[in-house]
């Protein structure tokens, strides 16, 4: 059981997979019994949020440094482009509600819209660190709720009841 908690913790920290991939793993019978929901959820949130301060303060600097390097440049330029594109999209659609838009951007579990991308976008936009972390954490919590409900089949059941 400890191995499964460690797995979901580590998966929650992986860019693009994050909590969105870790919650279904924790609820699956992939490596034994499903984990209890609340401890799984807390483990995934902590794992997903742990890299956020590092991303906010250092990722942009590292990416800009490595963008013209021979072996890593292509990947780093991809990450810069993703962060800038996410930031511009947030700014265009949000206007004065930029932190709320960041919350929704992170919270709605679509590909490429997690804590890593949201934090990188906040960094590129020079948003306030404390407000950004709060918005990202609220988004991670929302994404966890949505993924937990989806993994439990709630949306499928609702769809069956409606149609």
Task: Explain what the structure shows.
By secondary structure, this protein is an all-alpha fold. 75% of the residues lie in helices and 0% in strands. The protein is built from nine helices and no strands. Helix 4 (52-66) packs across helix 5 (73-94), helix 6 (98-107) packs antiparallel against helix 7 (115-124) and helix 7 runs antiparallel to helix 8 (129-151). The N and C termini lie far apart (39 Å). The longest helix has 23 residues, at 129-151. It folds into two domains: 2-48; 51-148, no CATH class. The mean pLDDT is 88.
Question: Could you provide a short overview of the structure?
Answer:
The chain has 9 helices and no strands.
**Arithmetic mean of pLDDT:** 88
* Secondary structure tally: strands: 0
Shape: globular
Number of domains: 2
Q: Outline the biggest β-sheet.
A: none
How would you classify the quaternary structure?
single chain
Query: Helices and strands: which structural class?
Result: mainly alpha
Radius of gyration: 17 Å
Q: Which percent bin holds the helix content?
A: over 70%
Strand content: under 5%
Series of secondary-structure elements, N-terminal to C-terminal = HHHHHHHHH
Set out the fold topology.
Blueprint: H1 2-12, H2 18-27, H3 37-49, H4 52-66, H5 73-94, H6 98-107, H7 115-124, H8 129-151, H9 154-162
Helix pairs in contact: 1-2, 1-3, 2-3, 2-8, 3-8, 4-5, 4-7, 5-6, 5-7, 6-7, 6-8, 7-8
């Amino acid at each position: 059981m400890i191995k499964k908690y460690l797995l979901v913790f580590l998966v929650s920290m992986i860019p693009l997979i994050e909590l969105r991939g870790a919650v279904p793993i924790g609820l699956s019978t992939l490596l034994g019994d499903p984990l209890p929901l609340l401890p799984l959820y807390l483990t995934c949130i902590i794992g997903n949020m742990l890299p956020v301060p590092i991303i906010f303060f250092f990722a942009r600097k590292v990416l800009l440094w490595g963008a013209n390097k021979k072996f890593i440049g292509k990947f780093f330029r991809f990450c810069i482009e993703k962060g800038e594109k996410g930031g511009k999209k947030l700014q265009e659609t949000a206007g004065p509600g930029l932190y709320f838009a960041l919350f929704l951007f992170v919270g709605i579990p679509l590909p490429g819209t997690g804590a890593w991308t949201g934090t990188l976008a906040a960094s590129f936009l020079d948003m306030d660190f404390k407000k950004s972390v709060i918005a990202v954490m609220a988004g991670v919590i929302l994404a966890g709720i949505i993924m937990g409900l989806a993994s439990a089949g709630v949306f499928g059941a609702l769809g069956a009841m409606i149609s």
